[in-house]
Amino acid sequence: LFQLFPGVNRVVEDQLAFGSTRSISRRFRRHFCSRDKHALFAVKKVEVMDKVDASLHRLPNATPVVGLNCKTAFENLSPSERLYAHHIARASFEGSLAVFLQVSPESAGIFVLLHRIFSSEPIESVKEKAVVAGFTEDEWHNFLVWTGAFYSNSGNYKGFGDSKFIPTVSADKLKKVVASSKAASIFPDLLSIYGAVEQGIFSLDSRTAGLGFNDTGVTTYHSESVRKADSDLINRYMKEKHIEGWNTRFFKEEVNGKTILKIKFASTSAGVSEEEFEGVTIRQEKGDYAEILARTCTHLKKAGEYASTANQKAMMNRYVDHFTSGELNDHKDASRLWIKDVNPIVESYIGFIENYRDPAGVRSEFEGFVAAVNKETSKKFSHLVEKAEVILERLPWGKAYEKDTFLKPDFTALDIIAFGSSGIPAGINIPNYDDIRQNEGFKNVSLSNVISAMPKQKMNFISEEDENLIFDYNGKAFEVQVGLHELLGHGSGKLFQRNADGSFNFDKENTVDILTGGKVTSWYEPGETWGGLFGQLASAYEECRAEAVGYVLCCDADILKIFGHEGQFGQMIKYVNWLSEIRAGLLALEFYNADQQKWGQAHCWARYVLTKVVLEAGQGFVTIEETKDSEGGDDLSFKLDKTKIDSVGMPAVKEFLKKLQAYKSTADVKGATALFHKYGSVGSTELKWREICIAKRKPRRIFVQPNTKVTVDGQNVELVTYQESSEGVIRSFVERYSSDSIADLERLWKEDQKYFPRAYGKN
């Protein structure tokens, strides 16, 4: 608006900078438009720009719900192993309530509202009240889909894509259901809770449509008042003090006329310290999510009682120390013990792990999981680990750019029993701490029952022959891609560093820059980390690098043989992997925000970049053509020439991969950014493709997870499963949490409200 009407007083700009777009427009109309027709034109133009297509933010009623089948794996566990798994599952689920406080200002309040409604009476009874309130059958079905998706995504923004989703029913109808619910007679404040979150449930404009910094998006990792200058300052402070932000949030507060920048640490213990930095008061404050983490600690202590080894027991204790103290070194110590927990029967990990959703790329979402090892599939990954050192030599950067010693990790296939977070990945490579990964090692896990839980849906843009090939081979092809992506993608490559004593972890005089042929001239300084230095770019960049490793190495027959795929069958696996992954880069355009010109999901941006790389390679390897469907609507035709994978596709990706690694190793943020944005930009042709992708998009699956329940005698654990439906998801969540857990979440949500006034109608 200020670009369109630059004559506005800058004081007014400062006052309005954190109001909603519509409130700004109203103020401009009132104060300026009556006197200046150009101002009126500017406001009208902005109001048009601010409109968001609501259809893109509503979930179709046909959204598939799939179960995580772990019944056989769970039944194969001994009673003590089940008890160990049960308490880690409970710790993970209890801790994941923190995610609702990490996503949006309203998410925790919505969770409280929904839990009280559906825990107070059967779903069928709520439906009767909805019909009286005027819900149509489609609206009721959609409300169940929206509720199931809300639970599964740990908030009202998609865990994959970061875009907001809203119900189709009107606010008036939903309010009537809340007022008439049995919960309203049990909880006198239910309507006030609804009043507080109603705006958050239904509002949709250019800012609230997706996650991001609070000036252009929504986040609760930072308070609304935090601005870029504040963020830059706190980053300088954290670097100087050697503070890593994984388990923190960043709030700005005015106290008695004094500005305080607060770093809030997740912990059960309380504590405050202050110091001046660059003329500003910095407060380190412990105790974020305290009540939630207290329950997590209780179950981790119980899990330790059933641990099968001393190492596992020590690991549980260190997790407890971390969640109690908020000290990151405690979690790093727990991660070191986790790396040493080789070939466990029950696998798990818990903490503030992935920083995908913090717009600054610094702070991480809570995540916890427990799983039973799939021994048969794990054998393949063990063979891959054994040959990893030899395979790494095939990557296009040479020995100097690889870790001095490849620390062979544990790599297992798992059947997930419980996963508490905003989404469930297909594979994981952790821990994410650079110092541990570089010098001590890591572990890889492939989530077998996640990979296999794929609904069969009609596929867009490809021939019927290719569609059938994907149906037949993609499960096995994706297993290969996940294995290579996690172990040899995320597990490869060296970061060049200057140590605190001035020495280097590489031969500074003789190491050749693989892009220029000269000497290496940049590296990571003491206190700098990969994620901290590359910031917002880091997640997508690293996912792209790992994806590219999978594309390149799946072309080798001996690697395919490790997974049991030889001859013609192996060649088909290679083709389907390339076909599926490169096509995914086209479909990823759905997750590009054209208005803000930014990507909402790291993996999608990564795949899109690689699709652009192979399109640039030309020679008819990949073609995307605009066509018409059977009804005359816009359509696309995607083709990949299987005969040119080795001669065109693989060399192009391999050369690009070399550049990715070179910039990452040498801490060259400028070079990396230029390279990634060159291929990651979306032009007019791609915007047209995006419109078609959105028009024909398929709904993503929602998982319904089981619960575990200790038997009456306390000596064993039962697995409680639910139907594959939105109702099943709702019942699983209602039975997962006690009223005490919900009351604690409500208190924490109300404490946070003062940091997010816009979410509650206060500009």
TrEMBL record:
Gene3D superfamilies: 3.30.540.30. One of its GO terms (biological process) is proteolysis. Keywords: Acetylation, Aminopeptidase, Cytoplasm, Hydrolase, Metal-binding, Metalloprotease, Protease, Zinc. It is an enzyme of class 3 (hydrolase). Zn(2+) binds at H485, H490, E543. Binds 1 zinc ion per subunit. It catalyses: Release of an N-terminal dipeptide from a peptide comprising four or more residues, with broad specificity. Also acts on dipeptidyl 2-naphthylamides. Its EC number is 3.4.14.4. Its cofactor is Zn(2+). One of its GO terms (molecular function) is zinc ion binding. It comes from the Eukaryota. It is found in: Cytoplasm. The active site is at E486. Belongs to the peptidase M49 family. This is Dipeptidyl peptidase 3. It comes from Pristionchus entomophagus.
